[in-house]
Amino acid sequence: MAKEVIVREAAGEAVAAAAEAHADRVSEAFKDRFQEYAPKKQPVPDMGVVLTMLAGALRASAAELVEKSEAHDAELSDDAAPREARDAATAELVQTMVRIRATTETVYGRAGLKALGIDGRTPTDSKAIHEHARKLVKQLQDPELKLPRPQDGVKVDTDVWLAKVGKPLPVLAQALKDVAREEREAEITGNAKTRAMDAFDEMFGVVATFTSSMLDLIGEDDLAARIKPSARRRGVTVEGEEAAGSEGEQEGAGAAAAGAEAAAAPSGAAGAAAAPKKGNG
Hints:
The protein is mostly helical. The chain has helices at 3-21, 23-34, 47-77, 80-116, 126-140, 158-166, 168-217, 221-226, 241-264, 270-273.
């Protein structure tokens, strides 16, 4: 579970526990101090009951956040298999296309590459290599395809090429669909987690502020100060904001590193396909 959720769950429990532990004292202290100001024939509100209700609401909000976070984590863990299938099929297809290109150039020259539509560089991105290979298959299956005269004594069976490309091509097509589906599902669970976190942060601010004020009323100044909501970070107390800050910085650094790494490499199995790139035209 994400650190940002763990920190919020702990902060919520600290506030809820403090509210429940001091509910009776708050009830009596509030009545003693303010009952003379109550409207005639109106009972003094029981602030202890209010604190207990708020503690329950905060725990429920925290539980909802944990549930949505775990669902998002579970969804992300499902992404590994489709991505691995995509990367493996991409690497195989890139290698196959590089070999076909090299053979075509040797046997038919640049004119042969142009006739087959593979005169450019062989792409390594998953979507790009899928489209590149699909176009080659279409060209090879075209009855009107005319290749240049081959080198003397050389004969190429293009059906072999079709068979080699035809093996990883449908696997990659399905993997791309699976990855896209997983990304959509992860977006849905991620949005649900974000909404749950926003709801918790709002609830936490209300409950922590009220509880802190009630603790001030009964002279629990130190505890009131510790559970007061942080002005710098949502969803945590003043006491917990330092720990939340360091964890947030670690997460931010990790996300930045991951983003930089992702930006440096094409999608799919570009890294795995980089080896056969030599002679790629």
